[in-house]
Design a protein that fits this description.
This is 3-oxoacyl-[acyl-carrier-protein] reductase. InterPro entries: NAD(P)-bd_dom_sf, SDR_fam. Helices cover 25% and strands 0% of the residues. The protein is mainly α. The protein is elongated, with a radius of gyration of 13 Å. The two termini are 13 Å apart.
Length: 44
Amino acid sequence: MTEISLGREATPEDVADVVSWFVSPHAKYITGQSVQVDGGMRYQ
């Protein structure tokens, strides 16, 4: 897992947390964004 800065693969909960935030009132002013949920993975 040296390619991932956080040292582990993502879980379904990691992705669900981001999705939950995007559909919450906290993100009401966010439009047209793309967010990588990759733990800081570096492509080589």
